[in-house]
Amino acid sequence: MNFDLTPEQDQLRDAVRSLGRKYGHSYFVEKAKSGEHTTELWHEAGRLGYLGVNIPTEYGGGGGGITELALVCEELAATGCPLLLLVVSPAIAATIINKHGTEEQRKKHLPGLADGSQKIVFAITEPDAGSNFHRLGTVARRDGDDWLVSGRKIYISGVDEAGHVLVVARTEDSSTGKLKPALFIVPTDAPGLEKSKLDMEILSPENQFLLFLDDVRLPADALVGESLDAGLPALFAGLNPERITVAAMGAGTGRYAIEKASDYTATRKVWGGRSIGSHQGVSHPLAHAAVQVELARLMIHKAATLYDAGRDLEAGISGNMAKYAAGEAAALAVDTAVQALGGAGMTTEYGVATLLGAVRAGRIAPVSREMILNFVAQHVLGQDKSY
Ligand SMILES: Cc1cc2nc3c(=O)[nH]c(=O)nc-3n(C[C@H](O)[C@H](O)[C@H](O)COP(=O)(O)OP(=O)(O)OC[C@H]3O[C@@H](n4cnc5c(N)ncnc54)[C@H](O)[C@@H]3O)c2cc1C
Description:
Butyryl-Coa Dehydrogenase, subunit A, domain 1; flavin adenine dinucleotide binding; AcylCo_DH-like_C; four-stranded antiparallel beta sheet; globular; FAD; Butyryl-CoA Dehydrogenase, subunit A, domain 2; binds flavin-adenine dinucleotide; AcylCoA_DH/oxidase_NM_dom_sf
């Protein structure tokens, strides 16, 4: 068992932390409040190679794995810059295209994802299906060599920043007549694709959208992979990277909040000469949250290591557990930090309450805590499927 990062991973962690500190949480908040995006940070991270760490070198990436990408997600979040699009574009979209796309799709899309000049977002959730992906109603049907895709998607992050969106749709398998899932790389300016921004109570420079697809016409090569058989494995390929990197983002956010609060409670004095942190009523909740964050980090490390070793099934269990643990730990850490900071915790200046919405959402998306518990009950505890 090895808990050490390699020297290269250590260097990456330090370098990403420096970049994050250069921008910091106030930059993240200013962009969110002004309705702008973190474009400068994204492009600089791309130029430095951090967005493509998990993309093979032949397509312009760093040739690393999800371990490296999780480090990038965690360290940026630990400096107050939790970028959800890292989970969507390099983790989900790049993994799916790399593992299940055609060679043309890899050549066309991966270099831009690696250097940050392109983003591809991911659309699976639907208003009438929610957590139940078996109910997906978006349909793709053949029209000559083309595809026509129609349906609705909800809460899709970053559509306004992306050149393409990976849309999950149902198709009919002509040999069996059964509906099977397929993924399509859809240009965000395709005729028939409309987006409508959702008003979310999350302070974030990244936005969510409702998507309407009305007979969006796509060429045959928009389908991910060589045939419809690629659909299901492609869909599953995105899940582990998604869970591991979103967990890393949660762990980083938890670290950020605890660090902010600890700095404050170690120096703030309101009872004579003693710091408020010397009172266990203040320090123990912070220490408890720090333990939860560290436990989540261990599970993230395990899940990423298993995934990069190609042990997908075990990584699935650890990745789900890591996502659950980190989601809970991040929410606990931010709430505890706000409490320890007192009134300062609710100010923009101290930059902790600004994360309350994001960490609350982290217990719902991209997979809810309940759906993870369903998964663990079934696959770890051997219970009958409950849904
Ligand atoms: C900030 C944010 C960003 C997002 N970005 C994206 C994105 O980029 N792309 C994308 O496709 N989607 C995205 N989503 C959608 C997200 O994945 C869904 O919100 C999530 O999967 C839950 O689906 P739902 O909201 O429809 O909840 P529902 O499925 O309606 O569930 C509501 C509640 O019931 C619980 N529940 C449902 N079924 C069960 C069950 N069988 N057992 C126990 N409990 C159950 C859920 O856990 C949840 O608490 C985003 C969501 C948010 C909030």
